[in-house]
Predict the 3D structure of the following.
Amino acid sequence: MNIILLGPPGAGKGTQARFLVEERDMMQLSTGDMLRAARTSGTEMGKKVAAVMDAGKLVTDEIVIGLIEEQLTTAKAPGGFIFDGFPRTLAQADALTALMQKVGKKLDTVVEMRVDDAALVERITGRYTCGTCGEGYHDTLKVPAKEGVCDNCGGTEFKRRADDNEESLKTRLMAYYKETSPLIGYYYAKGQLQSIDGLGDIDEVKAAIAGALDTVS
Ligand code: AMP
């Protein structure tokens, strides 16, 4: 099954994608993660996109479509792909349709995760991850059982994203409403959209996504 998780920054797409990877053998294709990896490894492209990302703006369609094309043509995903943070513009959505056709795959469903803006600000400004395994935490909503030690792997290094601050979040939210939210109508018109409440706790949202996927499996 190939799916898109659609929603504003902080909706919980990455958290839920990790569950689907563990439980359904799916592969998460997060363009945000790919771009951050390019920055860390210091590639030319990584250097080019760094300032744009920190400001909370979108990088060019050409770059992210190239990243997705590379994965779709080389990666093996027995349980299918989860598109997380892609597509973010109508041009990217059209490119994804064409790419899927090219590799002989189809998009099964798009799950829109609905969350209100006040919750997003709280979620984003307090979140951080384990530097070793990537497990997600939050200053108040999810703290490790033992302070400073990752519940999942015992790691003691944690990191926060450079763009998880209020200033850049404003730009990211505006980019979502201007450029990405039209995709809700686009996939609705294609008969592929399912909307779930992303405001509940992690397990409730997980169950809602499972319910949405059951309707197409
Ligand atoms: P994310 O991890 O999905 O929140 O993405 C972090 C940042 O990477 C975004 O604020 C953008 O600057 C950039 N980015 C990630 N995915 C895309 C995309 N599909 N199109 C354009 N920019 C993207």
Remarks:
- The chain has a mean pLDDT of 95.
- Residues 16 and 51 are 28 Å apart (CA to CA).
